[in-house]
């Protein structure tokens, strides 16, 4: 079985390098994929209030037979609940749906310029102190927002979850996270399947007896970036986890890095207008 215990450490959080993303997974399919992933060796599952599947994620965790303390569970609060009282209520409702207490990591899902970040960060820190979350962080934050959030927080922010794959240049945001000891968690790490059509990744994959998807994921984890690919197919679960038995050379890493370009972003939605991306 592929190794699944390699982690990134950030402010006391130990985040497994490979997790299961559950965006668009619903109902029994979601519960089954979580259960199968954990049985295969995954120890990290990512969900969100917005995904409307927290209940099924919790079901899958319990059905897997894996001990709760062995699994790192992340959920996210949607920006419409960023006012202080709303945030605390939303966090409690997420835990109720998951049937977990506490969650391992609670994130702000997307920036909301309509509510002062000071209020939201203050409420997020309070939720952690109250024991609803072991760790807290942000998602889709730019360099400027990271700097502001870290300055406002009186509890450590352990990660920024952002879109990262070989076709997007996130070097400025990644560097900002590193300055503050924050982990980077990559969603859409295979560009929603786009990596399968790339000739460079295909060539490197052939050289290693791997797939382009595995090479794209390896490119990220080899940089210490956590990946949370989503799939609804068990065979893909196995493929996405089997990335710790090979390494990319410096030349291969550099060749993949050159695929990044300014128009590589796939996800560009915000609660009230996208931020000015770095």
Walk me through what this model shows.
- It contains 10 helices and 10 strands.
- It has 278 residues and is α/β, with parallel strands linked by helices.
- The protein has one domain: NADP-dependent oxidoreductase domain (TIM Barrel, Alpha-Beta Barrel).
- The strands form 2 sheets. An 8-stranded parallel beta sheet has the order 3-4-5-6-7-8-9-10.
- Strand 5, helix 3 and strand 6 form a beta-alpha-beta unit.
- Helix 1 runs parallel beside helix 2.
- It is globular and about 55 Å long.
- The model has no long low-confidence stretch (mean pLDDT 95).
Quick gist of this model?
This protein is α/β, with parallel strands linked by helices and 278 residues long. The protein has helices spanning 27-40, 54-64, 84-98, 117-129, 143-152, 171-179, 199-208, 212-221, 234-241, 250-257; strands spanning 7-10, 13-16, 20-21, 44-46, 72-77, 103-108, 133-139, 157-163, 183-187, 226-227.
Features:
two-stranded antiparallel ribbon, alpha/beta, 10 strands, eight-stranded parallel β-sheet, TIM Barrel, globular, 278 residues
Layout of secondary structure:
Blueprint: E1 7-10, E2 13-16, E3 20-21, H1 27-40, E4 44-46, H2 54-64, E5 72-77, H3 84-98, E6 103-108, H4 117-129, E7 133-139, H5 143-152, E8 157-163, H6 171-179, E9 183-187, H7 199-208, H8 212-221, E10 226-227, H9 234-241, H10 250-257
